[in-house]
Specification:
Layout (H helix, E strand, L loop, with lengths): L1 H25 L3 E4 L4 E5 L4 E3 L1 E4 L5 E6 L2 E7 L7 E2 L7 E3 L5 E3 L8 E9 L2 E13 L3 E6 L4 E2 L4 E10 L4 E6 L2 E2 L6 E4 L2 E5 L7 E9 L2 E9 L1 E2 L6 E5 L5 E2 L4 E6 L7 E5 L11 E4 L8 E8 L6 E8 L1 E2 L7 E7 L3 E7 L8 E3 L9 E2 L1 E7 L8 E7 L4 E7 L9 E6 L5 E6 L9 E6 L2 E2 L6 E3 L5 E6 L9 E8 L2 E8 L7 E6 L6 E6 L8 E9 L3 E2 L5 E2 L2 E12 L4 E4 L8 E9 L2 E2 L6 E3 L7 H37 L12 E6 L40 E6 L1
Parallel strand pairs: 2-11, 13-21, 23-29
Antiparallel strand pairs: 1-4, 3-9, 5-6, 5-10, 6-7, 8-9, 10-11, 12-14, 14-18, 15-16, 15-19, 17-18, 19-20, 22-24, 24-26, 25-27, 27-28, 30-31, 31-34, 32-33, 32-35, 35-36, 37-38, 38-42, 39-40, 39-43, 41-42, 43-44, 45-46, 46-51, 47-50, 47-52, 48-49, 52-53, 52-54, 55-56
Length: about 700
């Protein structure tokens, strides 16, 4: 048995020598990968790059990560492999030389080379590619900047929480994008050159690796505009009137929709969404309005202007007048002030070549052909064409008016006014006798010279004075004389109510009478008056007593509390301060009175005369009757048929007026030569009845 053990050992040595001799005879190391040389690994997993070899025992092997040796070892050696310190936790070499990665991280993606060497033999090499992947997660596609039409380019990029992309594909509206003149596909991005609004749409990126795939989208809008804006004023009109309401809009194409902002000079008017709402627009709001369009995202700007015209009609109507130049020439004047723009004025009948704005005048020598000639001023304004007319005329005949009052210092003030209708306005001058009246203490002349005031304490200084006023203009003149007279009454009337308890006294004064007040006098029973004890007293007076005093401007007075069963008499005494004029006639109211002595004497004398007249009338009738009877007894001859004759007579009819209580009818005010300014109330007009035609057949 011992020899058998020794024999076995000898055989083993022999076999080893034989094997060595055979290998040495081949002289070649052969290394080959076990499995694919491209290895995909999921990060965190274990993966082995497996190799096999032949041609030598215990060769030395080296693994290179790229060009960097990371593991060196002699197969079969008891010496531990030499592994890079930074990679000992990951790399591990197998007994047959294969390289194992434990929990392989992403950073180990690389090309790995396996080198095997043996002294006396050629080196043998094989290579692997290891790609370490993560599952693709949370991919986000972003647009770092706005895509603006007209810009050079814009870029889409994607990012992800983790993952290694092995393959990416871009699509636009589900159509694959390839790199060309418009698109460039880069790592993790897509570049779009010269973007325009047609590039607006959905962009998709498809990412894939051996362990996962993800698809994500983004909607891209290419911003454009603002385009050329459209400015519009509504209602559309060539111009607007002051007080109108209008709106002005500013619109333009673009995405996003541009924001419109209005400016008016240095002002920023109220606006809403690019629309100006102008209510009650005024002329100071006319001018150039600027609309600025801004794209809030692209910050692109565009401006455009619109001009608004706001016109205002000149106030009122054109005013025409004829003015005197040195009382020799006539100046035709037309004015229509205000308005926007100013009105253009002209006198076509006087000149076809001259015109002016707002105010315009032409001057001519006064001549008879201009007297009474109507000249029209044409006022032309964009809002309205208007006109006015004027007629130059010489002064007309006039009637001076006289007014009297008492000044605060107790003087009588007599005002004489002379106004003659003329165009141009007449120039008034005053004279007393042959001397010109000059303003001073006694005389005062109004600013327009139409009034002359005479001031004095004594009314006698006014009476019998003659004053002359002359009115003249370039076309002629008129003059009138005024003769002042003392206080007097020209007409006095009495009217009563139906019950006879109230009467109204009215009176007038001559046009040139100087009157400062009136005493209202009554004769008859005293008017009822409450005594201190509350009882009423009643009496009578046979003389006129003053019951009221009125100023010189009053022309009527009411008397109350009259007894219809009693008789009253009234009169008015005009006064100039303390100077009294002639009383007015007496007016009576009340029941009829008994006959006076004169009336009784008249009746006594009239009775015998009446009896004698009746006797003579009877005798005459008797003789006429007998004479006619004698004629009827004479022989009669046939005669032709009698011809009827009609005699038409014009009768004068007088109005039949019933007077009650001895009152007379109101006076005929048409016969009074009074001016309206001298009466305190409108007076009734007496109109006689129409003539009556009477026919009598004989």
């Amino acid at each position: 048995m011992a020899w058998l053990g020794g024999f076995g050992r000898l055989c083993a040595v022999f076999l080893a020598i034989f094997s060595f001799s055979f290998q040495g005879a081949s002289s070649q190391l052969v290394v080959s990968p076990v499995g694919p040389t491209l290895v995909n690994a999921l990060a965190g997993s274990n993966v082995t790059l497996a190799v096999s070899f032949t041609g030598a025992d215990d060769p030395t092997v080296t693994w290179l990560m790229g060009d960097l040796p990371v593991v060196t070892w002699t197969i079969g050696s008891d010496v531990p492999p030499d592994i890079d310190e930074d990679r000992k936790k990951v790399l591990n070499i197998e007994p047959k030389g294969s390289l194992t990665f434990v929990n392989v991280p992403l950073g180990y993606t690389s090309n790995y080379t396996f080198e095997m060497t043996k002294s006396g033999l050629a080196k043998s090499v094989t290579s692997f590619t290891l790609e370490v992947f993560e599952r693709i997660q949370s991919v986000i596609l972003t647009q770092p900047e706005f895509a603006i039409e007209g810009r050079k380019l814009f870029t889409l990029q994607y990012g992800m929480l983790q993952g290694v992309v092995q393959q990416q594909m871009w699509l636009f509206n589900d159509i694959e994008i390839n790199s060309n003149s418009q698109y460039t596909v880069e790592e993790r991005s897509l570049v779009i050159h010269g973007p325009n609004r047609r590039d607006t749409g959905r962009y998709t990126v498809f990412l894939k690796n051996p362990f996962s795939s993800v698809t994500t989208h983004i909607n891209v809008t290419v911003l454009y505009g603002p385009e050329k804006p459209i400015l519009e004023a509504l209602p559309a009109q060539p111009f607007y009137l002051s007080g109108d309401t209008l709106s002005v809009s500013c619109k333009a194409e673009g995405f996003p929709l541009p924001t419109a902002k209005w400016d008016f000079g240095s002002q920023i008017p109220d606006q809403l969404n690019g629309v100006l709402n102008l209510t009650n627009v005024q002329t100071n709001q006319a001018g150039t309005y600027t609309c600025t369009l801004v794209s809030e995202q692209s910050i692109e700007k565009l401006q455009m202007n619109i001009i608004l015209k706001v016109y205002e009609r000149p106030s009122g109507n054109p005013m025409c007048s004829v003015q005197s130049v040195n009382n020799v020439n006539l100046q035709y004047y037309c004015m229509w002030p205000g308005g926007t723009p100013q009105a253009v004025l002209s006198f076509p009948t006087l000149s076809n070549t001259s015109s002016g704005v707002e105010t315009f005048s032409l001057t001519f020598n006064a001549s008879d052909n201009l007297n009474g000639k109507t000249v029209t001023c044409i006022a032309d304004h964009p809002v309205e064409q208007n006109q006015c007319s004027m007629t130059a005329s010489s002064p007309m005949k006039f009637l001076p008016s006289v007014m009297t009052r008492v000044s605060s210092d107790g003087k009588i003030v007599v005002t004489i006014e002379c106004v003659s209708k003329a165009s141009p306005e007449a120039v008034v001058s005053w004279s007393q006798g042959s001397e010109t009246v000059a303003a001073g203490t006694t005389y005062q002349i109004s600013s327009n010279a139409t009034q002359l005031q005479i001031r004095d304490y004594n009314v006698s200084n006014f009476i019998l004075q003659n004053y002359t006023c002359s009115c003249s203009n370039p076309l002629g003149s008129q003059r009138r004389e005024v003769h002042l007279q003392g206080p007097s009454i020209s007409d006095f009337s009495l009217f009563r109510n139906l019950n006879g308890t109230i009467v109204t006294l009215t009176w007038e004064v001559p046009p040139t009478s100087v009157v400062t007040g009136f005493d209202i006098q009554m004769k008859g029973p005293y008017l009822p008056n409450k005594s201190r004890g509350g009882t009423q007293k009643r009496g009578s007076a046979d003389v006129f007593q003053t019951i009221q005093q009125k100023p010189g401007s009053v022309r009527s007075v009411d008397i109350f509390s009259l007894d219809p069963s009693l008789t009253y008499r009234f009169r008015v005494i005009p006064k100039a301060l303390m100077t009294e004029g002639e009383p007015s006639e007496v007016q009576r109211i009340g029941p009829g009175e008994g006959l006076s002595r004169a009336a009784i004497a008249g009746i006594a004398a009239g009775i015998p005369c009446s009896l004698l007249f009746i006797v003579l009338l009877g005798i005459a009738i008797y003789f006429c009757f007998h004479s006619d009877k004698n004629k009827s007894r004479q022989r009669r001859y046939p005669v032709s048929r009698a011809v009827e004759k009609a005699i038409t007579t014009q009768t004068e009819m007088t109005p039949h007026i019933l007077l009650t209580g001895g009152l007379k009818s109101p006076p005929d005010y048409n016969r009074l030569n009074l001016t309206p300014s001298e009466r305190s109330m409108a007076l009734p007009t007496f109109v006689p009845p129409a003539p009556v035609r009477v026919a009598t057949t004989v």
